[in-house]
Write a structure and sequence with these properties.
It contains four helices and no strands. With 115 residues, it is mainly alpha-helical.
């Protein structure tokens, strides 16, 4: 039983580390570098750490909301995916199947699909 609990916690920690790493990298490299192209490596590391902290705090603030759900976390997760999956699928398939697809069209599709 102890080995099973340890492996489940290790998987959870790995998943969280992956989310935090991806979030901080996307924000730092795709957003912050455009805002400040001359940012030093030290500044980028600090911005990445701050992005990780903000992501963690937002996740912790979300917990009470999820707790109050009557249907449960499983149903909530599937409802969220039901909103997110169609526009992402359309953008992916459009990019693969239509040669004239571009970034502006993909952004417009995601923005209008999520509204």
């Amino acid at each position: 039983l102890g080995l099973m609990v340890a492996s489940m916690l290790a998987a959870l920690m790995s998943s969280l580390a992956s989310v935090f790493n991806s979030t901080s990298t996307i924000f730092t490299m795709d957003v912050w570098r455009r805002v400040r192209p001359s940012a030093s490596e030290r500044e980028l590391v600090n911005v990445g750490r701050l992005a990780t902290l903000v992501t963690t705090v937002l996740g912790l603030l979300w917990v009470p909301l999820v707790r109050e759900l009557k249907a449960g976390l499983y149903v909530y997760t599937h409802k969220v995916m039901a909103y997110l999956a169609p526009p992402i699928t359309v953008v992916f398939l459009g990019g693969v199947l239509w040669p004239r697809a571009n970034a502006a069209g993909a952004s417009a599709c995601l923005a209008s699909g999520l509204v």
